Amino acid sequence: MAYSSTTSSLAVASRSSVLTELEIYRDEWKIKKTLTKSDLGDQSRLLIYKGCVETHVLPSMADAVKYVLHSKDRLRVSVWDYDTQSLHQLDFKYWPSSKSYVLTLKWKKDFVKRRNLKENDQIALFWDPDASSFWFRVLHQSLPYIVS
Hints:
Its main location: nucleus. The chain is of the alpha+beta class.
């Protein structure tokens, strides 16, 4: 038996050279991002690339919700912080100028400051269609810069 951590599967080879794979881990965190200065700045917004939203979020949203997003209006969404088990309300909208989607409103207060997020921290999101909400988690926090 051999385990491959890169494919997250258990591969078993039999004497007849038949290879079967059993999936033992499924990564629900479809949208992953390394935070930039602009994600942490005074605009209080998290930029999410259009392709990620079109692939992993929009297909499971209702048509009425998609209409709101494309009408240059905001959509109030719940964001469940998986790590701290806390629920937050943010605005989700499309920004044509950057051709991307953003989470705004209390992003800076509820996530950047409360979670002490810094540039190069890695976060992940996924859209839960059953709850019509985002789930958020911090995958990796960069070490603080120390001046000696």
